[in-house]
Amino acid sequence: MELTNLFEEKRALITGGMGFIGSNLAHRLVSLGARVSIVDSGNRGMGANPFNLDGIGDQVDLNVADLREAQVIERMIVGQDYLFNLAGQASHAGSMEDPLADLEINARCQLRIVEACRKFNPVIKIIYAGTRQSYGQVRQLPVDESHPIDPVDYNGISKRAGELYHLVAHRIFGLNACSLRMTNVYGPRMRCRDGHLNFIGLWIRRIIEGKPIPVYGQGTQIRDPNFVDDVVEAILLAAANPVSNGQVYNLGGSEAVRLIDLADRMIEVAGGGSRMLTPFPEERRRIDIGDYQANFSKIQRHLGWQPRVSLTAGLTRTIDFFRQNQEHYW
Q: Is pLDDT at 288 greater than 90 in this prediction?
């Protein structure tokens, strides 16, 4: 599906729009001629960064507000054509440290958003940012959407609850909602300050600073990193096509790779660096999912999506971006 002109003059609300994926989506929507509004708590610990909107700040309507306040979403949802619901608590370790906050943000807040849409804008199209974490430790690779749900941490539970509110509201009330289960999204504008939200960001920071990359265990765990431009494309395709209503789709990267090989690829792309094998911290070992690779054939069939950016190309673009803009992300 060609996206040109599909979003021109359409009204799009992005929750979490100052964060990594939300801001990349905002840039793309602005380029497509959409009228973009953003609501974000501005919490840097959860990924918000005002610099992420550099270049489009005067072309979006930014509202710094906490979605846990009911009137915020009720006020902003009226008249919108699309809701790109990307706000949430994404830290797996953080969910274990403060599970009630995780529950409040990822479950109760999501129910409030769904109910606001149902009551004040029942024709809106909603794209929810799900996560592969809900699958837990996988039983076979690649993982398709029929894989059992068996989370290994509280974040996987709360994100699944948020997803189910959207899907049940579609089934019972006809709300136009779908969920994209994402996996290790990386690219420009991601958090690099620490490994709180994304280990790839931390690895890139350490490479640029000339410090070794810490690879836990033997580094044999498999992942399929997904470049953010490909993720944005999937979000927009799901928004534009009604066949996605009520569906759950896995997203995945262009290449499955062991973490130790990912570290070596990053060092090669950067033109230097080093890695070190590091014992798993016990609090992380307990919630590690092991290997993961997504089967994204369902969204490929339904919407024609597949990752286009190779791992090497994505890493190159990401490292180049942070070399040029590191003062805004460290």
A: no
Distance CA 188, CA 86 (A): 17
For the stretch 243-268, pLDDT in tens is 999 999 999 999 999 999 999 999 99
Q: Encoding tokens for residue 284?
A: 């992380």
> Rounded to an integer, what distance in angstroms lies between the CA atom of residue 304 and that of residue 103?
34
Helical axes 311-325 vs 199-208, angle rounded to 10° = 60
Reported confidence tier of residue 204, pLDDT bands at 50, 70, 90: very high
Instruction: Give the separation between CA 138 and CA 292, rounded to whole angstroms.
Output: 7
**Long-range CB pairs of 198-205, under 8 A, 24+ apart, other chains included:** 198/20, 200/225, 200/262, 200/318, 201/329, 203/263, 203/266, 204/266, 204/318, 204/319, 204/322, 205/322, 205/326, 205/329, 205/330
* Token pair in block for residue 236: 């927009």
Provide the token pair at 55.
């270049």
Count of beta carbons in the 10 Å neighbourhood of residue 74: 17
pLDDT digits (tens, 9 = 90+) for 39-62: 999 888 778 999 999 999 999 999
pTM for the model stands at 0.96
Q: What is the structure's pLDDT at 166?
A: 98
CA dihedral 230, 235, 237, 241 (to 10 degrees): 160
* Helices first, then strands: H and E counts in the chain: 12, 13
Strand partners, 225: none
Structural domains in the chain, CATH included, are 11-258+264-328 (3.40.50.720)
Kindly list the distances between the CA atom of residue 200 and the CA atoms of 31, 183, 195, 255, 263, in Å, as whole numbers in the listed order. 27, 12, 8, 15, 9
Tell me, rounded to whole angstroms, the distance of Cα 269 from its chain centroid.
24
